[in-house]
Design goal:
With about 160 residues, the chain is an alpha/beta fold. It has a single domain, classed as 5'-nuclease (Rossmann fold), CATH 3.40.50.1010. It has helices spanning about 15-20, 30-40, 55-65, 85-100, 115-125, 140-145, 160, and strands spanning about 5-10, 40-50, 70-75, 75, 80-85, 105-110, 130-135, 150-155. A six-stranded parallel β-sheet has the order 3-2-1-6-7-8, with helices on both faces. Strand 2, helix 3 and strand 3 form a beta-alpha-beta unit. The longest helix is centred in the middle third of the chain and has 13 residues, at about 85-100.
Length: about 160
């Protein structure tokens, strides 16, 4: 992607957080936002995330880093774990923006096969999507791989994007 382009990123916040956490490191979100801009020409980065009031400082920080937060109301499962499934909201936003021709190319930060339909749609619309997988290659969905879309693995950028102590 070209750095001067008008490209948008659609980020599954839970998928990003879990993928990086499972890889054993912490993402520097400010550095990540700069990297998205410089490497992929991302002008707008939508971060889809569950809304939990006790994390309001985190949300403020993410906004200061340059992310546009899109909140989903959270429900709790039987074990009391929060669930803020944002997949449908992310797909609707990306498709709406594509139909309204708001961006040139799209980056999808997720490893979930539920997004394969969106990837195919973006390919048909010639929006040249790229997947930025927070999970390692073996954990990235085969459904995404079968679309033929370019996939980059965020873990490969660990030395550039990890929180420095």
């Amino acid at each position: 992607m070209i750095s001067k382009a008008n490209n948008f990123a659609y980020i599954d916040g839970a998928n990003l957080h879990k993928g990086i956490m499972n890889a054993g490191w912490s993402l520097d979100y400010k550095r990540f936002r700069v990297w998205l801009s410089e490497k992929y020409g991302i002008r707008s980065a939508y971060l889809f995330i569950g809304l939990i009031p006790k994390y309001k400082e985190l949300y403020k920080y993410l906004q200061e880093c340059g992310f546009t937060l899109v909140f989903k109301e959270v429900i709790y499962d039987g074990d009391g774990k929060p669930k803020g499934n944002c997949d449908a909201d992310l797909v609707v936003q990306a498709m709406r923006d594509a139909y309204e021709n708001k961006f040139d190319k799209a980056a999808l930060v997720a490893s979930d096969g539920d997004y394969a339909g969106l990837v195919k749609f973006l390919l048909e619309k010639e929006k040249s999507p790229v997947i930025l997988s927070p999970h390692p290659q073996e954990r990235c969905s085969i459904l995404l791989k079968r679309t033929g879309v370019k996939i980059a693995y965020i873990n490969d950028q660990r030395s550039n994007l990890a929180v420095r102590k």
